[in-house]
Amino acid sequence: MAHDYDVLVVGGGPAGAVFALLAARDGCRVALIDPNRSVPRSEGMSPRLQGWLQQAGLFDAPAMRAVTAPRSSYWDGPPVQANAELIVDRAAVDAHLRRMAGAADVRVIEGTALPLPGRAEMDGGQGLTARFVIDARGRRAHRARSLVTRGPATIAIGAALKVEAGQGAGSRILPLDQGWLWLAARGDGTAWAQLTLDAADPEGRAAEARLAEGLRAASAGLPLVLGVEGDPLIRDATPVLAAPAEELAVLPIGDAASAMDPLSGHGMFWAVSSALAATAVRRTLMRRDDAETRDLALRFLAQRHADVYPRQARLGRDFIRQQSARLHLPFWSRRAGFPDDTPLEAPAESHIARRIVVEDGVLAEAEVVVTSHSPAGMAWVGPDRAVDLLRKAQADAVRPPR
């Protein structure tokens, strides 16, 4: 059957744009459909994602409005500067990655569409067909999905601020009785605040009033706020755990696969990571598309889904539980049990297991080393196979001394 494209990607955030670009680099005919509605807002980019983007030739600090800033956490009391993060403008990141996709011969179509098996239906009635269809629409993809577990209804209220100049760039995270606040100052007298709260306010206040209260409550840990610029941006931040893909006709990636609470601080990293996993599935099926290979792909996606998303949700849960003095308050008590009470890392001796891994860009079954800290398994340690290193260490441990 002839298709309009080899690959259709619906949604042009980091996950969708990266998937589309890599497919085009592999020689596929690709269309990327996106409404181009990204709103300027600051977001943290992890060093892991920055490193991968640099390696792939996709990182551009000026285009992304990137600023490296020390990160101060007030989570456990006095501020702790444990690391630094890259503050970027999310709308600029999205636009840059879509431009890079276009430069790689991806056809970028401005609009919205419904991803369906083998096709995407554009608003207005136009239909496009493809061998591979990718759903990268973000959280709205879950509205029509079954088998979805939602956490407590959560919103993020963001706003651009004018702050006292002269303090340099830096980000801060502060817990509050009603939620938590992240503030990213660029060092030029501007900053972005994001307040994460219960979606419903018992007093029925508007977003502006809730934001003002949050800034007042956090003022001791913030630079002097001189004013709020423009209207606040209100986004759904409810954590969502969806079931893994049960068929390959439409592959969800990024927040369309599962969406994490912004507390993780690694949203863009895991979004792009899911695009890379789906890329390995596409490459594998392009080499051989039969029942055995499709089964391998589905098992890989289920394995990766189980390894990543519940674990990230439990990391957030355990971070919430560190606020022991606030766990009696509604915001914190609602989140202390999501997604469950399963320990993050069950004690286990290192052992060898067979897993599906990505090797040379495609899927393969291989032996990996499973540990308490790496329950998904390690395939390589640098250039060496982890199983070879473990077996050598075990042999050295039982070898009698000379």
Automatic annotation (TrEMBL):
SUPFAM superfamilies: FAD/NAD(P)-binding domain (SSF51905). GO terms for molecular function: FAD binding. Residues 4-69 form the FAD-binding domain. This is Pilus assembly protein CpaD. It comes from Paracoccus zhejiangensis.
